[in-house]
Amino acid sequence: MSVVEQMLDTHPGNRGFGVEGKLRACIEACGECAQVCTLCADACLGERDVAELVTCVRADLDCADLCEATQRVLSRRTEGDDTLVRALVKACAEACRMCGEECERHASRHEHCWVCAEACRRCESACRELLAAL
């Protein structure tokens, strides 16, 4: 069990909501996706055809920023604003969808885009599952 899992298990803000598993999955997926998108953007910048990847780099960076913000807000469980949480998780899911689609356009030529598209899909799914449970 990771330290983050221990914190979530012991945090009083998580008791009684019934979404602990989906919350944990979303927090973890957001963290992974943010890191992968940042790495993908950097890898795109190292490619010879970087001019063709400008939209991908922007999508990667936007997605990484939203995933990081979502991860941080979801980690604050004490008396949070559910309206804000829902809006942020919904925006994160949409950013992941868009980034995943953009990365898929380049996946046949750039393996890092394939890896990123997969991480985006996992995060989008985790966000949508959490939204359904809230």
From TrEMBL:
PANTHER family noted in UniProt: CYTOPLASMIC PROTEIN, CYTOPLASMIC PROTEIN-RELATED
Protein name (database record): Four-helix bundle copper-binding protein
Organism: Nocardiopsis sinuspersici
Taxonomic lineage: Bacteria, Bacillati, Actinomycetota, Actinomycetes, Streptosporangiales
